[in-house]
Amino acid sequence: WRATAVFDRAELELLISAEAIPEDRQVLNAIMFLTGVRFGEAAGLRWRDLDERSNRVANALIKLGVRPGDRVAYVLNNCIELVELYFGIAKTGAISAGILPRSVAREIAYVVNDLGAKVLVVGPEAVPMISEIQGELPSVDAIVGIGGDAFLPYESLLSDASAAAPNVPID
Known about the structure:
By secondary structure, this protein is of the alpha/beta class. It has 8 helices and 5 strands.
């Protein structure tokens, strides 16, 4: 089975603030439980680090034009970036939409178009499929690639983005 967690803005800020949770195995346990991320990927991760990285994700998405209520879709296997992305999308007020990496290209195109996703984030496992359908995604303004250079590089976007919490009013 898979656990799903939904947080409002105040709960999210409390959850990832440095003061809320001691920096111990609770962080690893929560991340691994919610996402299935392997232990080695989460080793050494602290809430403070996750907060900073998710702020960078949020600010990068805002630079790409994402606003509250927009959709951000992603096609990723479980990874630390998925956790950063999930929290970062929440900090923009946008709606996150995960698409199974085992989907075929036409299914991904259908879901992305049905959502009207503004940004699509893809892992290396999805690059060939997304390259095939890139021209069939009219609502998508930007495709971000994690772990490759086929699209806008995730790490480059984050390195150019502020680590400060985004100033986004969320209802």
